[in-house]
Amino acid sequence: MKIGGVEKQFEGNLKLVKVRLEKFRGIRKAEITVGTELALVGQNSGGKSSILRALNAFFNFQDEREHFEASRHAFQKTSTAIIDLEFSDAPAACNLPRTIAGGSSVRIRLKYKKTANWELFNNGVWQTPPQGFLETLKAHIRYVYIPVGRTETVFQWGKESVLQAAVRNWVKDYTKKRDNISPKVADATSIIKERSFKGLSKHLRGLTHLNGSFEFELDYSSPPDYSLLIQDLVLRVVDGKTSVDISDCGSGTQSLAAIGLYSYLADALGGTYILGVEEPEQNLHPQAQRSLLAALKELPLQVLFTTHSTVMLDSLEHEEVALCRRVASSTRGFEITVTQLPSGFWAEKGIDRGRYYNFHRRRNSEFFFADYVILTEGPIDAELVRYLAEDGGLSFARHSVSIISLDSVDSLPHAFYLLKELGINFASVVDKDYFLPYLHDDLSTSRDPKGFPRYRREYKGTCLIEEILPDAAAREQLLEYFFSNHSRAMQVLEAVGVFCFRWSMDIDLVGSETAKDILFDRLGVPAAERSSVGILVNRRKQLKRQESVLGTTRDLQPRGLPNSYKRIRRGLPELVKQAMA
């Protein structure tokens, strides 16, 4: 997409690359990397808007002054708020000292306690900036905050209106090429002056009752031009024969119009525009949200936006997302943490970035808004875990819990490292073969006489055992428990947020005599074939079906569940409640 014939680019323009905040509103300390797009996500009242307001305070201090003075922006009443911005690619025309001599980076901070103080990082030292430095900065980069209510500062006609600025700039450029409007305006105003104003002038002269030869004349203070025709304009949305004022449209349509206006100004005025937009997806259907995000990616703007839309998040790289969360605080009740994947994160973890996003694109990003996440190997496992946890007293809605079905344990590292880096509490539910290889590498040749799997006494090289249990002695003890006392093994793993079936979700049912009898009837196994082998080998495909696993589980009383099921039913609700405490 092109705006004014220019592809999205920032070459030769100043760019915002880093936001550092200290003791601003609920944020004790945060460092955020900014690219061309950045989504600020999290639950309601999670501090997302605080980041947009911090940028507004830096660039447009007068808009936020009263909030500083009323201590609404204060972390605590006696604390000093710091908004520290770093910019890259400063052109030669940007006459501001550089962070490092000879470099192209500019770093400026606003400190506020009782008054606003600005400092500029000059060759490694914070200094008082030169007079007019903000005006110099704004000549190259500007920030506009678009709250949920878009109409006042964007669409209403006035000296600060974006609509007014866009219209004036457009007409100004148009008349530079060939002004065939102003002569027609002059002709029209001459007729008005002669036919209407002249009569009023004579009438006023008569009302003075003074002698003399003077007379009054109504005239324009300057020669009339096209500007007379662009006063008090409104933007309307026309659909067929229906015309609606933009202020009466939904916030989704307002967002699209506002972003369009800013995009035009960014292209027309040069430099960089940064938009801080609150929930641009409001009142847009899912496909429109995807289209909006695609358009944002092509506009000549840097865009930071808050969102609750999993549709938009599913279309973003996770490096383009900053997660804002409320956490308990010993000094102010709660505070806000901001977490973000660092550059090169996947390479550092030894994970192919392309493979990760192939995994992620099939997932729903609702886990960004969850307080707790449960990882399972597949969709049937997910349904079983949900049933057991709910039966054990866990409310997924009340406790804000999400389940991610991995489809394969090969994807476990993707979710494991992501959730750990973002600081989201989570648990994993896996089969035993996640940790241990089968005795002869595949299940079919590794069964015991009853049909149950056998394993080698070693960890798989692909499992995350060193991440899960960093202590070598603990790993050795767990390996022993896997063969001598699986209940103890489950106890060790549960302490670090992992639930492991004795064999697997479906095979554990066959290990329970009560469940096995129900399975015999459910699967219609003849009396002569009613053995473990009869189910595990001869009916292994039927055994793995959702109706077999869930149907049998629902028919069982809690005391008749396999031990691994009992641990999930009891332990998962406890882990979630501990995390919420």
Please work out how many helical segments DSSP would assign.
Answer: 22
Strand content: 15-25%
pLDDT under 50 segments (min length 5)? 1-10
How many whole angstroms does the radius of gyration measure? 33 Å
Mean pLDDT: 87
Distance between the termini: 49 Å
The shape is: elongated
Q: Order of strands across the widest beta sheet?
A: 4-3-6-7-8-9
Count of individual beta strands: 20
Secondary structure: helix percent: 25-40%
Largest sheet entry: 6 strands, antiparallel
Determine the structural class based on helices, strands and strand pairing.
alpha/beta
Topology, element by element:
Elements (H helix, E strand, L loop, with lengths): L1 E2 L2 E2 L7 E10 L2 E7 L3 E5 L6 H12 L1 H9 L11 E8 L17 E7 L3 E7 L2 E3 L5 H6 L2 E6 L4 H4 L7 H16 L4 H26 L28 E4 L2 E4 L5 H19 L2 E7 L7 H13 L2 E7 L2 H5 L6 E9 L3 E8 L4 H4 L4 H8 L11 E5 L2 H13 L9 E5 L6 H11 L2 E6 L34 H4 L3 H13 L1 H9 L3 E3 L4 H6 L2 H11 L8 H5 L3 H4 L2 H10 L7 H18 L1
Helix pairs in contact: 1-2, 5-7, 12-21, 12-22, 15-16, 18-21
